[in-house]
Write a structure and sequence with these properties.
Order of helices and strands of chain A: EEHEEHHH
Structural class of chain B: mainly alpha
Mean pLDDT of chain A: 86
Radius of gyration of chain B: 22 Å
Helix content of chain B: over 70%
Strand order of the largest sheet of chain A: 1-2
Low-confidence stretches of chain A: none
Distance between the termini of chain A: 43 Å
Strand content of chain A: 5-15%
Number of domains of chain A: 2
Structural class of chain A: mainly alpha
Largest sheet of chain A: 2 strands, antiparallel
Number of strands of chain A: 4
Oligomer: heterodimer
Distance between the termini of chain B: 25 Å
Helix content of chain A: 40-55%
Order of helices and strands of chain B: HHEEHHHHHHHHHHHHHHHHH
Number of helices of chain B: 19
Largest interface: A-B, 49 and 70 residues
Number of helices of chain A: 4
Low-confidence stretches of chain B: none
Chain lengths: ~110, ~525
């Protein structure tokens, strides 16, 4: 029940057993903590960046990694320009790929 | 003669016949059409499995059309001139992927497609595409490879754009059609050069004749350009997100398998047709470099997508990068370092099946989302997990598998790729791992945005057939994740060996000796 990878092996069952052990350990720590949580109280309310969120507030997908996307903005802008949506660009890049492939094959 | 002997041709002919008979039967009665579709789907899967069992247990299966016996490969002049199907471990493996994806797509389509929105047309095109894919994977001659390539191109473009009441699918279909035409012409030109030089179209015969002349090399370059474009390799990948993103879910999943059929064509060209004549390290490095570029560019583009369909589409393109990386590393060290070269190829080939199941599952889940709330825009989605519990679970499973989280199947194949590519260059592994981390971030964002949070609107639940289709793929993902050694030993290794060291056996099966 193990996959030989050349450098070692991978056994999902061993991993699951270890994961179960870690989960058990985590549960053991958790079960010894304070029992102050009460369901249905204001403890259940969402709490965003130090401010109480309005009813039905939801952190939508584009909000995640906003900073990451901003930091990589120059790269992202270049990539967006690269994916122009123009068919002529699609064909041009295919021709470039073809030229590279031909060069590699013919010159080696 | 048993039906098993004719299984290779039946696996192609039955869905082809099924496609053309389907609209006629739909005119008689819809339930007759549905029964026909189920029968054709079940029979095709049975034939593909039969072929695979025969190929894995008895060796290469050869089926000659128009001969007194299907095993008569050589005509009276001592020349393999007839149309021939040749199924080795790699072809059989690809057939199984096509069967799995086709089955899931068919089950899903029954309740996903609406009668008034071209259900009969979509199912007809699906069977045509299925037949073309199996033809590409089983054929033993280059011209029929081109014919089946065109069959898949026409059916795929039509499947992307048949919903003519919307503008975006039509635009995506047009772009896909133009790019497929360019790719098809490159492949046809290469076949024409080989035919002009060697006077043959049979793949095994051509392989025995190709000696590495300048014309041979030009043909190889053209085949590389055409097939890499059809496989969706960067920088010629831009049609793929358009096509996958706009196609309905049941079609998008088959388009992914169709892309893999082109990738199979590339493997066949590199490892069988030109094995004796190409500079393997140079071409291997080309394929490896394109693989790394593909996975990185596609995953970065996925980060900024706001449409769930296009996000998954870029995820699908990134997976092509991992396959190119694995098999590219194998090709690079084909003769010098077979110890880790075979592991790299096993990783790349195993990832093909993993990708078909995981990306397929994600596309089907995205289809449920679109059907449930009418949009796939992540800026408008949220809280769908309240109403679409099973779909949310399936999406989560597919996302984690795609990102390579243990103990799921994506981890097993990526581990093989990481370890072997590390032996060639640690930089390759670093970029591949970075790609997986970004994929995890992208799909965590998609899952959180679509399925978590408060309920924003009522969602229409998925029908039973759609859940069954997703359940089939989820079961395959779990099975391949929990017992990867079984799949690698019985399916992946014979496929990798067929490419790695199987050329002589392939030639002997067709040409004798």
């Amino acid at each position: 029940m193990r996959l030989v990878t050349g450098q070692g092996y991978w056994s999902p069952l061993v991993w699951l057993a270890l994961a179960a052990g870690v989960a058990l350990l985590a549960w053991a720590f958790w079960s010894r903590g304070q029992r102050t949580y009460k369901a249905g109280t204001e403890q259940d309310l969402p709490f965003l960046s130090g401010e109480r969120a309005p009813e039905g507030a939801h952190v939508r997908a584009p909000h995640l990694y906003w900073g990451f996307a901003q930091a990589l903005r120059p790269v992202m802008d270049w990539l967006k320009a690269f994916h122009s949506g123009f068919l002529g660009d699609y064909v041009t890049w295919t021709v470039i790929l073809l030229a590279v492939a031909l060069l590699v094959v013919v010159l080696t | 003669m048993t039906i098993g002997m004719h299984a290779p041709i039946l696996a192609i002919a039955v869905p082809l016949l099924g496609a053309f008979a389907l609209p006629v039967l739909a005119k008689v009665h819809r339930s007759l059409r549905d029964l026909w579709a189920i029968a054709v789907g079940a029979f095709t899967c049975a034939m593909v499995i039969t072929v695979a069992v025969q190929a894995f247990t008895s060796g290469i299966q050869v089926y000659t059309l128009g001969a007194a016996s299907p095993t008569d490969t050589i005509a009276s002049g001592g020349f393999p001139i007839r149309i021939m199907l040749v199924v080795d471990g790699m072809s059989a493996f690809m057939g199984l992927i096509s069967a799995l994806v086709g089955l899931a797509s068919l089950i899903y389509a029954f309740h996903f497609l609406k009668e008034e929105q071209g259900k009969t047309l979509a199912m007809t095109l699906f069977f045509l595409l299925w037949a073309g894919m199996l033809g590409m994977e089983y054929t033993g001659d280059m011209f029929n490879f081109f014919v089946f390539l065109e069959v898949t191109s026409i059916a795929a473009c039509a499947l992307v754009g048949y919903r003519t009441w919307e503008s975006r699918p039509a635009e995506a279909a047009f772009k896909t059609m133009a790019m497929y035409t360019v790719g098809g012409l490159l492949v046809l030109l290469a076949i024409g050069i080989l035919y002009g030089e060697h006077g043959a179209l049979n793949l095994a015969y051509l392989s025995s004749r190709i000696a590495g002349s300048q014309l041979d090399k030009i043909a190889l370059g053209l085949l590389l350009g055409g097939l890499l474009m059809k496989a969706g390799a960067v920088p010629a990948h831009m049609w793929a997100p358009d096509a996958y993103g706009e196609a309905p879910a049941q079609a998008a999943i088959v388009l992914v398998a169709n892309t893999q059929a082109s990738l199979y064509g590339l493997w066949r060209v590199l490892f069988t047709l030109f094995a004796g004549a190409l500079s393997a390290p140079a071409v291997g490095w080309l394929v490896t470099s394109l693989g790394v570029l593909t996975l990185l560019v596609a995953v970065l583009m996925a980060v900024i997508q706001t449409d769930l369909g296009r996000l998954i589409a870029y995820g699908a393109v990134s997976q092509i990068g991992y396959m190119l990386l694995g098999v590219g590393v194998g090709l690079t060290v084909l003769s010098s370092r077979p110890d880790f070269g075979l592991v790299a190829m096993q990783g790349g080939i195993f990832h093909m099946m993993n990708d078909a199941a995981t990306i397929g599952l994600l596309f089907l889940a995205a289809g449920v989302v679109k059907r449930a709330v009418g949009t796939r825009d992540l800026r408008a989605l949220g809280g769908l997990g309240h109403d679409l519990k099973w779909t949310g679970g399936f999406f989560f499973l597919g996302a984690m598998a795609l990102a390579g989280i243990p103990p799921l199947n994506g981890f097993a194949s990526k581990l093989l790729i990481y370890e072997s590519s590390f032996r060639l260059s640690p930089i390759l592994t670093a970029i591949a791992v970075l790609g997986s981390i970004l994929l995890l971030a992208v799909f965590a964002r998609a899952f959180q945005g679509a399925f978590l949070g408060p309920r924003l609107r009522e969602a229409k639940p998925a029908s039973l057939s759609m859940l069954i289709a997703m359940g089939v793929l989820a079961a395959v993902i779990l099975a391949m994740g929990l017992v990867p050694d079984f799949f690698v030993e019985h399916l992946v290794t014979p496929a990798a060996e067929a490419l790695w060291r199987g050329r002589d056996l392939y030639l002997a099966a067709v040409l004798g000796g």
